[in-house]
Specification:
The protein is mainly α. The chain has a domain of about 60 residues. About 50% of the residues lie in helices and about 0% in strands. It contains 2 helices and no strands. The longest helix is centred in the last third of the chain and has 33 residues. The N and C termini lie far apart (about 45 Å).
């Protein structure tokens, strides 16, 4: 949902894919995330597995011209990738937060006076 994994209210992203340093709602530190290339690979995997059977079905059923299939499926793949990429990156950062990976949950311990 592209929201903070801690409070579910603040926006996780500052722009299209840049993860904020801290949640504007609760102040949770989000700079620990290490999504790297994982969301891009997963997005390509999902789009290709959705597009390949659809491409085969459209070709066998309607037999459109190769140029129209190239244009149609290229535009469809780009639009679907751009729509899924922020959602998948948000889910990946949320999974890291939930499992306390890469520094999430390592708040400094305050010294207690005895």
């Amino acid at each position: 949902m592209r929201k903070c994994p801690a409070c579910g209210e603040g926006a996780m992203f500052d722009g299209y894919l840049k993860v904020r340093e801290h949640c504007p709602g609760c102040g949770e530190a989000l700079h620990h995330q290490r999504a790297d290339d994982g969301p891009a690979y997963l997005t390509i995997l999902l789009v290709s597995h959705l597009g390949a059977p659809l491409l085969l079905w459209v070709f066998l059923t309607y037999q459109p011209s190769p140029v129209s299939m190239l244009i149609g499926f290229s535009v469809g793949a780009v639009v679907l990738c751009l729509a899924l990429l922020p959602v998948i990156k948000g889910a990946m950062v949320g999974a890291q937060w939930a499992r306390r990976m890469h520094g999430f949950g390592n708040e400094p311990v305050e010294a207690t006076s005895a």
